[in-house]
Amino acid sequence: MTDHAAILAAAVGEIHGQARPGQQVMADSVARALDDGVHLLMQAGTGTGKSLGYLAPVLARCVDREERIVVATATLALQAQLASKDIPTALDAVEAVTGTRPKAAILKGRTNYACLYRARSGGPAEQDSLVGSSALAEAVSPSADDVSRLGAEVLALREWVEEEAERKGLADRDDAPTHTARAWAQVSIPTRECLGVANCPFGAECFVEASREEARNAQLVVTNHALLAINAMHGGTALPEHEALIIDEAHELVSRITTAATDELTPGLVERTARRVLTWVDDDLGVDFLDQADVLRQALAESELARITAGSAPLVYAAAQLRDVARKVVSALGKATDDAERTQAASAVKEVFDIAERIAKLSEADVVWVTESEVFGRSAYVAPLNVAGLLRNQIFAETPTVLTSATLELGGSFEAAASAVGLSYGDRLEDGQEPQDQFAWRGIDVGSPFDYRRQGILYVARRLPPPGRDGMSEQTLAEIAQLIWAAEGRTLGLFASRRAAEQAAEYCRRELPDLRILCQGDAQLSELTRTFIADPSASLFGTMSLWQGVDVPGETCQLVIIDKIPFPRPDDPLMQARKKAVDDAGGNGFMRVAATHAALLLAQGAGRLIRRSEDRGVVAMLDPRLVTARYGEYLKSSLPGFWTTTDGDIAVQALRRLRGAE
Which SMART domains does the protein's record reference (predicted)? Predict the structure, then answer.
């Protein structure tokens, strides 16, 4: 048997790292889980080296048994990071130890690859011969209109697609020339509109099929949560057969699966789809289909911006009417024909039919609601009440699964995380217990290499008033300014709303004119983050995307301010529906849904402070409920083990000492 410990040691040596006990325990635990087929929930704190911790035993198994194992991480960006950094390191280590190099492949959703049919049929051929993309790009000035810039982007993408086809590449969007989403839509295709490899004139060259073939020939396949969701929802057709599954960043799994299973219906979608089919249906049916956009628009206007529960609601009636008309259109278009445009239009109508039917059904398993935005107007959404059943039946019942994250043990227990993904607490195995069925699981916390109590302080501002609905109090704003003054900037401000972030930024800019205060919305978030990293004295204020998406080690971030406990918004229809469902079943919906949601985000937010062993600083929680409310202890037990105080002077003095001021 291949020694996974030797592979791990070789990989750590290759990156000039040091052996970490938590990483070694993790590798041993993953190897055991793969051997005995028991699911594993593994909490591995920041700095553990999770990726190599699971890749070493996974690749050892691939060498020994020639099995295929899938790794799914939260986002395409993390998928790319694995592919470019951690996996090559691990493969080098495997080769050094065993003399064998397993094959790895990256697999993404269909729309992340260019479509030859769309790229080759999307515009007149003579345009390409008149001027090349580089010449066109030079001719289009920065002040050119959007249509000109879009044309230049599309032409560049089409040339790149042909180059990829000639060299038998995959035409992965990440490798494409710079482009906007609108331009990419001209060379890619929605999943539902794909003609299928057998019916597409370019099926033999299909990039998606090529990527899937690479995955079928690989022993390690790296994908993302969204494609994992599609695979679960469509009977295992998106991923190749595999003997085990590793889910990285597992704290995001439920949210990502929910998003993938959520549908949106708008009047604009109905109108665009109707116009696509006018050529192939009779005038009366075409007009009827077009009219449904106005019917839906009126129903949305008459709806409250809230969850829809009544079968007599205008939206439900409009969705039923749209469903019936769309069914007639699907029937009129018939089955697949030699006309590709007609086939694709029929698929688009079928998608409208499916969403309308789902809304009209108003199933107890779904949540339907109406929302509104300034740009797009009103929309109807339908999402699963929960995804635990889907995960239990389509993932855990099928293959041994390891879930790993820095935040899985909430409130001192794995119960909430296990329940959310469909594993019952009764199926948890203690040491020495034998599994009774395919849903048996273990929970292990391998700890963190960081000494949180020595490296950080959790300051809870007990003397401040609890958060209110009318914005932050003057005392809270003054507290923020004093803390940032003590830290001389170097602050990441995590706020529950954009309004609160902007209010705090305005106050601090006025009170601390010598310090640079960046606020989400001032520019692209990526640009703001780069500026924050480059300027240690700057502070960055923002909302949810900063709670989990910013990794800033060093003195750039020595103070993390959290304005309030991040409970779900009271107007979030899906979270409130989930809370009510738990209450109706006799449970505590507040603790199971709202407090668990808050605990996860608090752990992620507070975790922004310490990213390496040299980091020092303060997490300032400005919501006194963390120490005054009954649920406060549950939330605190989900946070890293910082030394805790409610004395603001201690926090200020600690920050001043870090700056050498005292």
Answer: HELICc2 (SM00491)
